[in-house]
Amino acid sequence: MSSDLLDALTALEKQKGISRDVLVEAIEAALVTAYKRNFNQAQNVRVDLNLDKGTMKVYSRKDVVDEVEDDRLEISLEDARRINPAYELEDIVEEEVTPRDFGRIAAQTAKQVVTQRVREAERGLIYEEYVDREDDIVNGIVERLDARNLYVGLGKVEAVLPAGEQISTETYQPHDRIKVYITKVERTSRGPQVFVSRTHPGLLRRLFEVEVPEIYEGIVEIKSIAREAGDRSKISVHTNNEEVDPVGSCVGARGARVQSISNELNGEKIDIVEWSEDPVIFVANALSPSKVIDVQVNEEDRSTTVVVPDYQLSLAIGKRGQNARLAAKLTGWKIDIKSETDARELGIYPRAFDETQVEAEGQLDEELALNDPYFVEDEASTEFEEETIDLYSDDED
């Protein structure tokens, strides 16, 4: 048994990375419990498992005392010195008590311990692998669905995609291949539990890092993301390299890069705008593809009043207020949109942006907005109610 066990432990050490010494200690501890249980013994014992010599012995351990109260645990100094004159008080006397048929029990116990430790080690390795991949994307295969969750196979572990993290416009079937974003990894009694998402803004960020080399290399930085998963998203980008166009880098030739990401997200529309530390410019950019005439900023409550041409009010608002709502989330500023006519009636006299500045800051005119592959115009109408609309809230009409 010792030779076979030695070979097995050596193989496990190479394949699973589990130290042989750790396994031997675990087996010895389990054999102590097995000895007490199977032979109805209550004394302290120690098991010595020597795989190199092929020996296994059980030793009772007794404390050397002046007066013995429990002879299963203690031995008098006089009796101890009959065994070895060198014993002193508080020493421990060991005596071999290996049962004749202990080998069968030992083999069974060793098998159970090794199996358990291998399982624990594998779980630990899987946990360590995936806990380091939190906030990253992985490829998975849809394995099964139930009433609440979708289960995605990641190879060594099955991840949970909760209903709230699924894109409402997507349908999933077993064996479908999808990209998911790891949001959390937990250690449980049944092994590591991995939770993933298809709606998290981090998924969009990681997809751009994969698709756009300038982002991966740090030349272009994603400053903020606002996402309504499955429908539309906005991202703001920035670079300190004057020779690099951050928006163009993300769009790619003929929109190839952003289109690839949109396809991965089941056709989700993605607006890419240039970030600016000036809230006037940033808010105007964020409302693309609508043209903006004026942005007035209130620093105290981080709010802005935006004036747009009358015929572009619906475009600025977006269907069910989506464009303005996403712009507010992207910038972190409240946005109150007014048509030019309403603004003048209320005593707000907008100053028109210089056309050169508008173009330089990424403001697209209506024709460009309709033709550009990464800007998709909402179903806008030139008809609108003449009223002031606060679109920072998420309430939809």
TrEMBL record:
Gene3D superfamilies: 3.30.300.20, Nucleic acid-binding proteins, NusA, N-terminal domain. Its main location: cytoplasm. Monomer. Binds directly to the core enzyme of the DNA-dependent RNA polymerase and to nascent RNA. It comes from the Bacteria. It is found in: Cytoplasm. SUPFAM superfamilies: Nucleic acid-binding proteins (SSF50249), Prokaryotic type KH domain (KH-domain type II) (SSF54814), Transcription factor NusA, N-terminal domain (SSF69705). Participates in both transcription termination and antitermination. This is Transcription termination/antitermination protein NusA. It holds the Pfam family KH_NusA_1st. The gene is nusA. Residues 135-199 form the S1 motif domain. Belongs to the NusA family. Keywords: Cytoplasm, RNA-binding, Transcription, Transcription antitermination, Transcription regulation, Transcription termination.
